[in-house]
């Protein structure tokens, strides 16, 4: 895989930012397809994971970064997310970062592979958040197709037995599912309704 995932990652973060901007205070304690997260915790994880890949892009130890962003006031999620996604853009600006070996939660990989994995994570959590909020915006199907391709490449087993892995075994794809529905099902997620 020799693509530059930065444009896709940027598009994914723009989509997340638009979705985060729709979150109302009364939705923050609501459920998500990630059973252990409410909307507030999901936002914290989205922002924290974004900060982690920013640190990786800057040549730092992303594994030392907690994948949650703590201390964000309820009315500051959009601003907090905008700050960390700006960090990502800056830290990955140098083309050399794409071929540099970096360490991410699933091991050591060239930067382009690591960032592609974070496209998959961002797009998956976009679906999670969209489901939690009642699907307020149309989502970019090209991003979901890319993320599904990455998921199939890095998570080929239908059964995912590793308890450390944040994705469950694949579930049946709902009839008529769009690209996001197929991605969610492949990663073991079910719609809330």
Structural description of this entry:
This protein has 193 residues and is mostly helical. 48% of the residues lie in helices and 4% in strands. Helix 2 packs parallel to helix 3 (77-91). 39% of the residues are buried. The N and C termini lie far apart (36 Å). A two-stranded antiparallel sheet has the order 1-2. Strand 1 (101-104) and strand 2 form a beta hairpin. The longest helix is centred in the middle third of the chain and has 22 residues, at 111-132. It is built from six helices and two strands, in the order H-H-H-E-E-H-H-H.
Helix segment count? Answer: 6
- Uncertain stretches of 5 or more adjacent residues: none
Question: For the terminal residues, how far apart are their CA atoms?
Answer: 36 Å
**What is the total tally of β strands?**
2
What string, H for helix and E for strand, traces the elements in order?
A: HHHEEHHH
Q: Tell me, what's the shape?
A: globular
Could you tell me the radius of gyration in angstroms? 16 Å
* Helical content (DSSP H or I, runs of 4+): 40-55%
Mean pLDDT: 92
> Main beta sheet: strand number and arrangement?
2 strands, antiparallel
Q: Output the strand order for the largest sheet.
A: 1-2
Strand percentage lies at: under 5%
Structural class: mainly alpha
């Amino acid at each position: 895989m020799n693509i530059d995932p930065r444009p896709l990652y940027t598009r994914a973060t723009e989509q997340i930012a638009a979705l985060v901007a729709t979150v109302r205070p009364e939705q923050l304690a609501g459920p998500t397809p990630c059973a252990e997260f409410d909307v507030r915790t999901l936002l914290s994880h989205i922002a924290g994971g974004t900060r982690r890949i920013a640190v990786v892009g800057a040549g730092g130890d992303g594994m030392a970064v907690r994948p949650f962003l703590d201390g964000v006031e309820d009315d500051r999620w959009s601003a907090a997310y905008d700050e960390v996604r700006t960090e990502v853009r800056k830290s990955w600006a140098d083309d050399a970062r794409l071929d540099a070996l970096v360490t991410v939660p699933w091991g050591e990989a060239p930067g382009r592979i690591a960032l592609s994995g974070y496209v998959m994570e961002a797009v998956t959590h976009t679906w999670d958040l969209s489901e939690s909020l009642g699907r307020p915006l149309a989502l970019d199907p090209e991003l979901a197709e890319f993320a599904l391709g990455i998921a199939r490449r890095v998570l080929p087993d239908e059964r995912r037995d590793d308890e450390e892995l944040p994705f469950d075994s694949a579930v049946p794809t709902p009839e008529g599912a769009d690209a996001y529905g197929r991605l969610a099902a492949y990663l073991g997620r079910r719609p809330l309704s």
